[in-house]
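Notes continue from the previous slide.

Worked example: a multi-chain complex. Inputs as given:
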Amino acid sequence: MIDAKVGGGEVHFIVCIKQVPEGTEVEIDEEKGILKREGVESKLNVYDAYALEAAVRLKEQYGGTVTVISMGPPQAAAVIREAYTLGADEGYLLSDRAFAGADTLATSYTLSEAIRRLPPFDLIFCGMQTTDGDTAQVGPGIAELLSLPHASYVTKIHELAGDGIIVDTDMGDGIETLKIKLPCLLTCTKEVNEPRLPSYKLKKATRGKKITIWDSKALSGANAAYFGLSGSPTQVERIFPPPRGRDKEMWEGSPEELGRRFYHKLKELKFV
Amino acid sequence: MSRMRVDQELCILCGQCVEACPFNGVEIRDDAVVFTESCRLCRVCVKACPVSAIWLEKSEPVSTVDKEQYKGVLVFAEQRQGSVQPVTYELIGKGLELAGKLGEQVCVYLAGSNLSSQAEDLLYYGVDRVYLYDHPLLERFRIEPYTSLMVELIDQIKPNIILMGATPVGRSLAPRVAARLRTGLTADCTLLDVKPNGDLVQTRPAFGGDVMAQIVTPRHRPQMATVRYKVMPAAERISNPHGEVVRCPVDERFLQSGIEILGFKPHEAASSITDAEVIVAAGRGIGKPEGLELLGELAGLLGGVVGVTRPLVEQGWADYTQQIGMSGRTVRPKLYIACGISGAIQHVAGMRGSEVIFAINTDPHAPIFDTAHYGLVGDLYEIVPALIEAIKKGGSFDAVFQAG
């Protein structure tokens, strides 16, 4: 269904990116158990910058096209515009109220259905996780729904070799070097490269560049029951502030006093 | 399609929903509460509304599986180089607790090569069955065979709950299995409980770790969760196991893989903060990268290592292997000294299991003090040198005494 084209023409790289809230400073309303986020700024998920850089570097080395794809509200177009300044050639935003409230499975499904509707590809890159969800589930989920092999936690990209790509991945206990057949999906850690800074020249050149917006109708043929909240097996039942309060001692005084007291406590607890 | 609804008659335009929304997904326009494209249906506003004017209108109910068909807990036993990873025993411990509440069984999925003794040994942790897939081509983890065999097993034994370690392997395998089964998966659960109807109640930090979310999988089975190493207590080893090892035939069709393993280089053991008994951790309050040197000195004196919070890694001051928190590692050392750490849940979730926690912060209201056993209000650049001096003096006290 999906054919690799390395050696047989232009390479097509797809990068999945997400707009996430900047910072994690929030206040929690203890009484109501809700969170207040003041003046939320949004930014490109930091790991996605490494994924995009990986794709752009391969494009520079082997030729080809880099397509970025994101799902989110209309203002998430900002991260696609940012991706244009970092070397992306094409940008797609999946935006529809029907996609809202998606858990990782519904997100993987929606992205995979959109990717099926793009020109044939060789490689999909994702960040290893997002900083707002921290699940690391969407990349592998997309790979599964597209029946692709995948490797998570890629720390180094060696080269495209024949019908595959050679990469290093962090398996927790060590680094494994793998050759993965194309097409495949890779999720990138921060070890994989050093992302470039946005190019002012590209910013100017891509100012009016088209961002293709796809709603649920553009994905006709997909199962709409798998989109958004209703397509999400997991449901958030309750949100609450973290448990607080334990028996604690608060110490105040001059730094010398505190340092000494600290030392005596560590001695009492047999740490020194 | 599901959407948020507002009863404009009940609404008093107080704006609490607008303030509460983490995503700027609700606005007041022309004296009416309006949900924008940014709404993620998180329902924080439902709770915030003082007059209960907001509710979530769900689209037509999706069919629910027959929950009665799914029983028991299945634990994925991850092995690396033939040794079962320690998180497995913690998952078994939690699995036994959950299954015990429902009067059901705990089974284990183990795949690899030459693992008979490892499979037998798992029985000593009180599980009912170990399903062993033993084949030379399964020696090392490759995503496609491990996924297909696990899905085959799940189709056969229909577990209600599946627990997997939130390790690189578990976090790679779990979402593929969940996607193939079209079921729910919750990452990095910090609490797990089960309702009498078998629904798994999963608690994890959410929205970047600022709040806790309680997550359920109400219409799908099996219910899948990953749990990090050192978050839950391990199962006790017993002397009289009652379970059995079930050797499963390995269907050759499932061994196909697009992945060829060319090499493996183990990490140096010393680099792991997960196993450190003493951790001195730095947060944004250190202000400058040089602060890490000071804390490194303290860690050295205590026989420990330095850990950091996410912002320090994002600023490039430290390596992500040193990062403690939801997006880094979870640790349970005997001693944890938090320096200049405010205490975002993101971080606290990764260290709250530590035995003794000291926190140093200039802000007496910093949330880290709610997690600490001992809170020191003050500047770490004054307190830590004083402590270092005391340790150095203390350690050489006898020598000084004799010399004097």
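Summary box: Chain A has one domain: 12-231. The first strand of chain A starts at residue 12 and ends at 17.
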